[in-house]
Amino acid sequence: MPQSQRHYSDVKIGDALGPQESFLSKDQVRGYARTTGMWVPRFTDDEGARKEGLPGMITPGNMSLALLSKLVTDWLGASDAKLVRVGTTYRQPVLPDHTIILQGFITHTNDAERTAEMDIWIENEDAERLVIGTATVQFAK
User: Fold this and answer.
1) Consecutive sets of 10 residues in the chain, 141 residues long: mean pLDDT of each?
2) Domain 15-139 has what CATH class?
3) How far apart are alpha carbons 66 and 122 in whole angstroms?
4) 35-55 CB burial, b ≥16 within 10 A, e <16
5) Model pTM?
6) Domain residue spans in the chain?
7) How many beta carbons lie within 10 A of that of residue 63, not counting itself?
């Protein structure tokens, strides 16, 4: 759950983000693909995705990035901080019609810059990390 007000002074290395568990439906992925102009078989149709050598429909990478960004901004809550950097590596496709778990933890803080760095990831029901990444947030000075 997002905290109503998070302060830099309270952030500690090892603090957890999540876990947030969510069922990711094919309809959600199709809706995202439609909205972002990515209406292609790999994101909308199992059979079309299989023709591309995929196991079925997959989630667009930028949707995975958005979900991880939301994990961070939910963790920030109503604080005076902002997400200043996020980067991801896509290890395996995120398949819709499965439950995904988003989580992370604080890996570094910088008092002079009032920043916190974190590792973040999406995993499947088998605890396989599908998308891994890092993010940096900066609190107001």
Assistant:
1) 73 97 97 96 96 97 97 93 96 97 98 98 97 97 82
2) alpha beta
3) 11
4) eeebeebbbbbbeebeeeebe
5) 0.93
6) 15-139
7) 22
What is the 3 state secondary structure string of the chain? CCCCECCHHHCCCCCEEEEEEEEECHHHHHHHHHHCCCCCHHHHCHHHHHHCCCCCCCCCHHHHHHHHHHHHHHHHECCCEEEEEEEEEECCCCCCCEEEEEEEEEEEEECCCCEEEEEEEEECCCCCEEEEEEEEEEECC
Q: How far apart are CA 135 and CA 110, in angstroms?
A: 14
User: For residues 78 and 61, is the Cβ–Cβ distance under 8 A?
Assistant: no
Q: How far apart are CA 68 and CA 35, in angstroms?
A: 19
CA distance 96 to 108: 32
